[in-house]
Fold these 2 entries.
Entry 1:
Amino acid sequence: MSHEQINQHLSNWTERESTAEAMIPLIGRLYRKNNVVTSVYGRAIINQSVIDIIRAHRFVRQVEDSELSVHDTLPILQAMDKLDLGRAHVDIGKLAVKFKDEGGDLTEFLKREIGPVVGQYAAQSEEDAHNDTKDVVLYGFGRIGRLLARILIEKAGGGNNLRLRAIVVRQGGAENDLEKRASLLRRDSVHGPFDGTITVDEKESALIANGNYIKVIYSDGPDKVDYTEYGINNAIVIDNTGKWRDEAGLGLHLKSKGVSRVILTAPGKGDIKNIVYGINNDWITDDDKILSAASCTTNAITPVLKAIEDEYGIEDGHVETVHSYTNDQNLIDNYHKGSRRGRSAALNMVITETGAAKAVAKALPVLKGKLTGNAIRVPTPNVSMAILNLNLKKDVDVEGVNDYLRDMALHSELQKQIDFVNSPEVVSTDFVGSRHAGIVDAQATIASGKRLILYVWYDNEFGYSAQVVRVVNQMAGVNYPIFPKRARD
């Protein structure tokens, strides 16, 4: 290779960096002014670095026949910036690929593809924007609670959205309790540092995270807080403790002033609706005061199972979950009321039970009685895998089912729930931070006749938290239309 050709590679890279840099102010303005969340093939690009934006474009090689360049998407952003858009999720990567196929006038193309939100921007005063937000309270501040806080704080930047107003915890006993909790939000051994700044207000018992003022309330019970004292009204309480899982227990939250609805981040018991967003969120009504977001595993497998059921039909099957250890297990051998869970989580694979397979039927009744399930806890801190061993009603082959699931991940109504990866080198840590409920590993798919085995990765912390926020958005009436509806006909 000549010296000139070598230099050309670097020149091409710096040109891509420059183009990505030009995209950042457009992405930010669309988000903060218009409440438009932009992405590239499902990878959100708001608040991302130049390298992250280029990497999101690079991902397209795995799922399309050609590469996608920042040179293709910059014109899309520039044109969108002039259209006075209303609130929406817009995948500029899919739009760019479709526009390359169709050609023509870019502005007219966008008016066809995202027409319902063109010209729908309505400027609001700061007071009106505040009135359009929905107060959210996190009851409990463990693994899921802190990740929910991160997502809610991140998404507050666009306004007219969910607003995290308070965190309720028990008094930890330490003099610097508030600082300790702030530190756990600021630093995370799995998910890395908080993306922003956090200030502790000891006097007012509050955290200020990226400008969001979050009151920290100490309480011994869900019915012992008067939220209106802190200016919080008609709030949605997200209960992350798992302590109360039936209507009687969760109903205690509704006895506190300022609370209008409650959602549980665990499987609910009794008649509580277990909601898997993308599957049965249309079951949510204004009359529902208490809901459950089911479990991380149920959220991971139900969308993929629905896709397979719709296309091939499922006779029966078994779900084996290879799950990262959780805080419920012991770090070293010690007494535990559960079988095997008393043994060291960091040293052992531990067979345990899971109700996820049966819980699928609560969101997808057509599969009632068709699935069995078990779980193996393994010595990793995050990211799990579900192995779906299914007997189908139709014959299937590897290429056909992978093509179908790829299309579902990219172009269906389940595109926020199902992701798709086609690399022979991926491992569990590659999926830390994934906001999809589950990721189909195409290289691991096995099919023969009516027998199908799928491997589905999922970030059992972050992916699940993203699903919870989607449910809360719907409960709050904060709805984002998604464009394009389909990148292919």
Entry 2:
Amino acid sequence: MPETVVLLNPRDLVVDAARRLGLTVVVVLAPGGADPGPVPGLLLHSPWTTDPGGLVARLRELDLPGPVSCFGFGEAGSSVAAVVNERLGWPGTRPGALETFRDKAKLRAAVGDRAGVPVAHAVCDTLAELGRAIAHIGFPCIVKPADGTGSAGVTRLDGPADAAARLAGPELESPHLVEEFLQGTEYSVEAMSSPRGHRILAVTEKATTGAPHFVETGHTLPVDLGAGPAAAVADLVAATLDAAGYHYGVSHTEVMLTGTGPRLIESHGRPGGDRISDMLRLALGEDVFEQSMAVVFGRPTPDGPARRRVAGIRYVTFPGDAPVPEVDVAAIAALPGVVEAHLSATPGARPPSVRQSRDRHGFVVAAGDTREELETHLARAVAAFTRGS
């Protein structure tokens, strides 16, 4: 009997992956969800982001044939899919693993000192606790929401003046994490998990705006850390995923490679954002959507990459003292090596200050046979953005 997948607000790439696997497809769109194009199966409309229980009831009534599993590949979608699978007894990741990922302090406690040196941290519910934690951990330190995403609310404190300014703000609305500031190079690690274990797909190099908000401005994959550091990073990622109880599908783990080895920053039971899943496919032929669905249904998955290229994304930032120029996005997307270009800022308006991921002004994705070729493609495209049309 053919397997069935329930896909929550899927991109067209997710629907295409299910089609290649020969799966029966049910697409569920929330209000305002992007149209994934032609759906080779059943299309449902449901406010699943705010009413998971209603979606569970509706899916139960459908009595879908064959083995069934629900998939969502974003932050909200992965969580709701886990709830659906647990309540309906379908295979897949359970909510407990994703709850551990979301609570950064809980994840640190679960990992403990199994691999690498644990990061000094404290969880705070009030400004008074925040002040005591800052004093204990010392400067510099990072303060961020314990369940935050997209660089929202991340602040670096370099001394007493920064701490006083932070403590003079409003009372905390949610638990916050104070952690030591790590010195080193930050990477993300994309992995595919199954009951057999965890396979590292790629290590991704990242660039950020730096202090105080550390918003990501670019990613490149894959990068070679060397045999020793790569093995240590792989051990830390495996220990993290095991501690969370994560055994089905793609994950995105952020680590800092320091002078004393890799240190865990955070991890997520979903694909990396910022088009990292697209770059895995472009550079290495690794389709995380297809593999995630195959793993749940016990289908074979690749043991290694299908090709070896390099892919990257660069975010565009316009100066804040001038209006955003008119940009011919289609012409930029047609440049050599470029596979996608996007403008988020409004032409003619002043661009926002970049304090979190959603503030970024635009981006370009490209691929090349070598890192040098990739950087040439990206630089040409970014320059075309900043010149305008």
